Write a sequence for this structure.
């Protein structure tokens, strides 16, 4: 598209709603050249009917349902069903989905042998991505590109079920604690908390307020359309790689600090402020000073130009969890002061540097006793239904293998000269 002497390349997919809305012919007549760039097909402009995100308006919807309503009214398993199958389940469908997941939470004892080989200092994400990929070895039929709908469903169920057991074990490994096997009398989130925090020597009481907060956190992280890990899952899956292999690749992408590490950075920033004496006004001033390299972590978002819709919900959940548990944590006090400054100080208001989802999620995780090394694992646990839905959609649409476009910037032509 040529406008005011400048040429722009539009990521418009042939036959898409986008294309119809643009009315390419009319645009061409009015403005000059229009390029239909099919190279964007599997990268920049993937078609998807799963998650709608409007960064200007701060809108996030899963399959058309506002995230606020889902976080308020649903459980994580209900939202997982919605993302994966495209509709909210009726009671019978939900009961069956939950039952199937519960039945598959045990992992093969030989997976445990691999797990036992990891050093206790191993990062939980290294164990998680390895063991999720190892499921391809335990279920070799999962690598077939021609699976029936029922076989895909079984892989989906296994993955949803086993990830929570493996995730809880990664924590136990770091702590050097004995492992807990899943309890089939508990719902998804309660079972996860039980596997994380219970000891054989103590009676463990599952706190319903923590279960509710965890459901919300996982729902809020369940999908966020095309980002680094999600497009990785689609791209790897587009080569007909198995669901387990594709999701394992997504876990590695999420592990990158620029993607999944944001809430860990928030906690580390709060710790640095605490070590410095805890004076938040000093750090607010540093954040405003252009010549200072200090940056407030957990504020603003690359996509949202307004308040991240997830942050509004999670702020309420954080307030509730902190009040209910009566936590007196100096780090959380620092967080509350920074939040107050960002919401009221004109400098931050003008720049729309609102606290984002990562700011609050780290606070809740800390309040419920989840250490920072586990934050990305919690993100992966929440994001799994989104990854599955995106992988399934790409396969069901029979999308071609992804091949990101390259612009060559190297030498044009060189003659070989012998040394
Ligand atoms: C996400 O939830 O995936 C993140 O906010 C990252 C992103 O939007 O790229």
């Amino acid at each position: 598209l040529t406008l005011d002497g400048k040429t722009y390349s539009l990521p418009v997919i042939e036959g898409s709603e986008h294309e119809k809305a643009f009315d390419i012919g009319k645009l061409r007549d009015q403005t000059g050249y229009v390029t239909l760039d099919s190279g964007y097909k599997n990268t920049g402009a993937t078609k998807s009917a799963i998650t709608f995100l409007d960064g200007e308006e701060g809108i996030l919807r899963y399959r058309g349902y506002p995230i606020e309503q889902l976080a308020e009214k649903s459980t994580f398993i209900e939202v997982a069903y919605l993302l994966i199958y495209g509709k909210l389940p009726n009671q019978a469908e939900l009961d069956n989905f939950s039952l199937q997941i519960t039945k598959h939470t045990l992992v093969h004892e030989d997976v445990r042998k691999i797990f036992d080989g990891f050093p206790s200092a191993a990062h939980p994400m290294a164990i998680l991505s390895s063991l999720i990929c190892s499921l391809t070895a335990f279920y070799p039929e999962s690598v077939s590109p021609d699976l029936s709908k029922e076989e895909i469903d079984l892989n989906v169920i296994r993955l949803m079920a086993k990830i929570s057991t493996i995730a809880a074990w990664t924590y136990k490994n770091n702590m050097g604690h004995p492992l807990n096997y899943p309890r089939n009398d508990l719902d998804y989130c309660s079972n996860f908390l039980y596997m994380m925090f219970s000891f054989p020597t103590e009676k463990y009481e599952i706190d319903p307020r923590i279960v509710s907060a965890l459901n919300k956190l996982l729902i809020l992280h369940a999908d966020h359309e095309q980002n680094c890990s999600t497009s990785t899952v689609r791209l790897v899956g587009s080569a007909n790689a198995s669901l387990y292999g594709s999701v394992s690749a997504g876990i590695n992408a999420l592990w990158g600090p620029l993607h999944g590490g944001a809430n860990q950075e928030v906690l580390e920033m709060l710790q640095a402020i605490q070590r410095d004496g805890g004076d938040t006004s000093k750090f607010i001033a540093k954040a405003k000073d252009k010549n200072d390299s200090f940056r407030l972590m957990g504020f603003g978002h690359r996509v949202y130009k307004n308040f991240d819709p997830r942050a509004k919900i999670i702020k309420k959940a954080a307030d509730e969890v902190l009040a209910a548990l009566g936590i007196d944590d100096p780090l959380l006090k620092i967080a509350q002061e920074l939040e107050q400054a960002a919401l009221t100080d004109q400098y931050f208001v003008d720049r729309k540097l609102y606290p984002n989802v990562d700011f609050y999620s780290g606070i809740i995780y800390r309040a419920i006793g989840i250490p920072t090394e586990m934050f990305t694992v919690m993100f992966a646990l929440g994001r799994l239904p989104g990854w599955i839905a995106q992988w399934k959609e790409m396969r069901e649409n029979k999308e071609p293998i992804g091949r990101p476009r390259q612009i060559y910037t190297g030498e044009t032509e060189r003659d070989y000269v012998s040394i």
